[in-house]
Every structure is written in structure tokens, then in C-alpha cells.
Write a structure and sequence with these properties.
Elements lengths: L2 H5 L1 H36 L6 H35 L11 E7 L2 E7 L1
Antiparallel strand pairs: 1-2
Length: about 110
């Protein structure tokens, strides 16, 4: 994180919350994938699958999805909050100027920002 975000406590808290939620969502999704994939693999291999595990895995996905969506919203909100706190005069909104110049040394172009 840049030092600017560290000085904006509200944005920093939103990013920390998003990081925690994101890690939890990834772990829950991984567990869900394992629990869902194991019975499917067992079924493909011709064994006797435990479909209860697949149901629990799908439940893990169902819990992880809204958490992942919330994580994304927290990140977007942190960025919007940080950007809105910036001083607009510190941003360079000027358009570059292209000028043709000629002097005793010759002719050329000048770009001013």
C-alpha cells in the first residue's frame, strides 16, 4: 500500500477489511472445491461417491461468493474514498502543447506540459 493510503484511515480500514474477507473467501472456495471435486472424481473413477460432501462443498461456494462480492465492493469503495480525498490542484490536468519553433539554430518542435 502506498503511503498516501496509510494516511487515509477510512480507506486503509476498508482495504484491511477487504483483505481479511478476501482471504476467508479464497479458503472457503478451496474447501468447497475439494469437497465438491472429491465425490465427482470418485464417481468418474467408478467408486461410491459421498454426495453429502459435494452438497457441503456447494454450500461453501454459496457462502464464499457473497463474501467475494463484498470484498470487491470494499476495495472499490476504498479507492473512491481515497481518490475523493486528493487535492484536485495536485493533479496535472493541463493538456500538452505542441509548438513549432524556429531560430538561428534551426527549426523544431517544442512540447510543453
Amino acid at each position: 500500500m502506498s503511503s498516501g493510503v496509510k494516511t487515509n484511515t477510512q480507506s486503509l480500514e476498508l482495504l484491511k477489511k477487504a483483505k481479511t474477507k478476501g482471504i476467508f473467501s479464497i479458503i472457503l472456495s478451496g474447501i468447497g472445491g475439494g469437497l465438491t471435486g472429491t465425490p465427482i472424481g470418485t464417481s468418474i473413477a467408478g467408486g461410491d461417491p459421498n454426495w453429502t460432501l459435494a452438497g457441503i462443498g456447494i454450500g461453501c461456494f454459496a457462502i464464499a461468493l457473497p463474501i467475494a462480492i463484498s470484498t470487491d465492493k470494499n476495495i472499490k469503495q476504498a479507492v473512491e474514498n481515497y481518490n475523493s480525498s486528493l487535492n484536485p490542484t495536485t493533479l496535472n490536468h493541463s493538456k500538452p502543447e505542441l509548438n513549432i519553433i524556429a531560430n538561428v539554430q534551426g527549426a523544431g518542435f517544442s512540447i510543453n506540459f
